[in-house]
Please model this.
Amino acid sequence: MKQFIRRLRYLLHRRRFDRELANDLEFHREMAERAGKPLAHTLLLREEARDAWGWTWIDRIAQDVRYAARMLRRSPGFTAAAVLMLALGIGVNVAAFGFFDLMFLRPLPVRDPGSLLRFDRSAPQGYADNFMYPEVAFYREHSRTLSAVLASGDAKVTIEGDDRQLAARFATANFFSELGARARLGRLLDPGRDEASDAGPVVVLGEGLWQRHFGADPLIVGKTILLNGNPATVIGVVSSEFSGLGLGTPDLWAPINQQPYFVKGSRLTDFSDSGIGVFMWGRLQAGLTPKVSEEELMSLAAELHRQHPKDVWEKEGLPSKPGGYANSIRHEMVPVLALVGALGLLILGAVCGNLGSLLLARGVAREREIAIRVAVGAGRGRLIRQLFTESLVLALLGSAAGLALGYVVQRFLLAWAEVPVWLDATPDRRVMLFAIGMGFAAAIMFGLTPAWQAARQRHRATITRQFLVGTQVAASCVLLIVAGLLVRALNRAMFENRGFEYQHVISIDPHFHGNSSAEARAYLDTLENRLRGLPGVDAVSMVSNPPLGNRWTVFKSEVAGHAVSIHYNHVDPPFFQTMQIPLLRGRNLIRGDLRAIVVGESLARLQWPADDPVGKLFRNGADTYTVVGVVGSARLVSPEDSDAVEIYQLASGDILPSMMVLVKTSGPPEGLVQVVASVAKAIAPKLFPEVQLLKGAFRDKLQTAEYSALAVSLLGAVALLLAGAGIVGLVAYGVTQRTKEIGIRMALGARPAHVLAVVLRQFAIPVAAGLLAGVGGAAALSQILRQLLYGVSNLDPMAYVGAVGVFAVAVVVAALLPARRALRVDPIRALRYE
Amino acid sequence: MPKTDMPSGALVLLILRVLRSGALHGYAIAQRIHALSSEVLRVEEGSLYPALQKILLKGWVTAEWGISETNRKVRFYRLTPAGRKQLEAELSEYGRVNEAIQAVLRTA
Model:
């Protein structure tokens, strides 16, 4: 340790120590001269002695970097091209990682996010990400390991003078103070004042609503507004910089214990599994681990189970995860994240392959320089280090440019997606480190081999170039195939039969809030009957998870070795007629048929390949159902998921307050939307039904597919261009190198086709190998895509043949352009040359 | 000219030993070793100065400014207590190894 400090002193006071050493040696030289034994090279001696300090490497690196900067400045064209390519390759990755960072790695801008935990409910009999409110209240009161328990639940509300539904978040009153939120105006919720049982109803407005609806009224605090018709005092406005504990931004906030006051028929305070769920977070006491808290909560849950054996699960535990992030990585996201990462790395791979070829070519041009360096005594290791330093400097320049590019892309996308203002795309330390790491990785990929080759003065060997071209071919091939698959999926989605009707369907979401099943049933029945009476309406039915909507009940499972996503849907008997889904076997559901299900054809084929599915039993958890009919496959909810299969059962009981109504029209549906909306509104003035065309929902869904296809196609095109450039370079180099040989062959009467064959043969193998690897890679990678392909197989031959075809054309053009030069070789001149 | 290279460990030992009787500058260290070894051992400048730097880093000697016999400002190296301890350790180690080698040479 002491020695290290001494060594550090030598680094810090290098100049002084160096002067002293120089003086020592100068004196030694003088003395030696007197003694008649002159000393020749004090400078070399000094350097050798200095080595003992152990800092020479710093000098060498500084020297290398200076030299590299000089070399790069001298060929600005090459430098610009290389940095641009690297910026692209690194930028794509930085942008992707930046999003990942924002969503999963960067703590939310709240007070002490590290000690926040988010809890779920887990027991042998079930799993849920939300709690009954009384359960949370119990934990809040009794937990000693958590210094604070936070909870929030959302509900739709209306305020006077606005037809739209607003998102209200009902939160424990400590939510703001615990998270360090700032008020834009007035004050925020306060546990002391607003949680008392006799406290008056209060509401905190979000900054957005305050500006939109109240014209940023500076005197809003203290005014009374009507929420769902109930008066409440505005106590303040919360800044839009406040992130809360997730991505959604509610329009307004109110104390959770006042939720029953605002929401009619709320069952928030019921100790019942079917009450509305709230999310729960806790702040860990300093010095404790989450494990300790989980154990405490588990014993509290056991206590609660004794009091409410029906509603609190047996052996209920509360698994925790870090709570201070916008999102947490869920199991099913991993493949998609991996795919995005792999595509990004492929682009970088293609860029590196290309740059590697460029560097090799430069290595040839610098042959003389390197020969001189070797002649004056540069060792191989030293040369490699110096050449590699050049690559490293290039790569780090690329990192900086990539960081900027990634930031711009991210800013643009965030603005386009209209995310909350507190999501800040500015790269943090992690993103910067990532960019630098990417630069290092890139430098190793594109710089190490050429440096090695140049230093060994053996760049004549084309094997490295062939390898590099092969990598580029493989990388761009994968990207092209994936792009091809996405384009095919888009095509299929747009033009192919979906298996259900959506062009002439209107959907109505009544947005029940807090209504009982009986109320919901009454409303739905009235609505259906009135709609059936309208002219131009063919059929009316209800459904729990609307087609092409963003609500679903899905179980990932495996049937006969196939991964499936089983989509459950609660419907009523006219559903299949409304959606024009053909009944293939058996019968339809009938009223009162609570133990019957109808399955989609693809599930039937997987589950009972040989037998008649009708009459078979199907188990779902504790319940057993009888299959009464088989209908055509229709991936209603997620048409993009090739693994989706359907199960339909009759809607009844608790599910009714979340049902939607579908109307099939005989003519164009546009004209009926207004009528349908007024009918739906007239039945219950307190509800605010949302009426839309299924066509519109479908267009929205396609948009995502369009953008991803476009993005990957762009990446694929870039990769293709890079690979093309790489091949042009390789062939041109080959022709130059073999001019003499070609001349001899031509002089001996070789035909043009033969000459071309000779020139092109050397790169046929790398291209073929690259293609093969690319096709294999794409086949493996696209496995992940299956759930996004609208039923197109991930091994869809059209996509593969198409992509390889495009690629082949590009390769042939790229090869023939420079190869034509071989045919114009003049034998006489070629032989005289040299 | 064929050089009699000295193992660097031995050089360090010799440097420490000649410094035991007082501070010396670099040239004098080389001269002293040369003279004391009856002109058998010649210390190359190429190994002397790196060795001195290493010893300085280890903290076995310190350097201080002094005036040479030619009336010039030059650094004198002086043994530190740590260096003295190191010298004792190396001497006894050397003695032990030397005896062992002698024993083998006598009897084998």
Summary: The longest helix of chain B spans residues 81-107.
